[in-house]
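Batch job 17 of 40 flagged for manual review because the log was empty.
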Amino acid sequence: MTMRNLKLKAVLVTAAVGLGALAMAACGKNGEGAQPAAPGLGTPSAATSPATSPAPATPSAPPPTAATPTAATPTGDRPQVTLTEDPVAASNELVRLRKAGWFNPNKIEYADDAVIALQQFKRWLDAGYIARDGGWTPEGLAAVERANKSGTPL
């Protein structure tokens, strides 16, 4: 095997571990399955993992209250998001944002790759499309509707 193939395998294994951690975080601490996703950007692919496939609806935990400070919300009403090309660091950032209530893959469908999902989250957050509970804002729902009708990516 060439050095390039070894590096590629290492990156893929690292991404798989990061996505596994993200999937575990998405399932919650009580072991219940993931909730069905809100309107997405398309139909789920055959490569969708079981952790991201729709399951019966279960009550979700309430978002953190204003009295509970979170690491993702140092000041203001939006979290600081640090983009990275490292799959493990991106996965850790998504877990942090999920714990703060902002990132919820049960309400918005994101890419399976942690780095791309983090980029999507930041782009949509900066555009005002993501609500405090991790779902779509009214502007976000309108943008999803436009994207679905026009076929252009969001």
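Reviewer: the log was empty due to a logging misconfiguration, but the result itself is present. The chain has one domain: 3-58+78-150. Unflagging and moving on to job 18.
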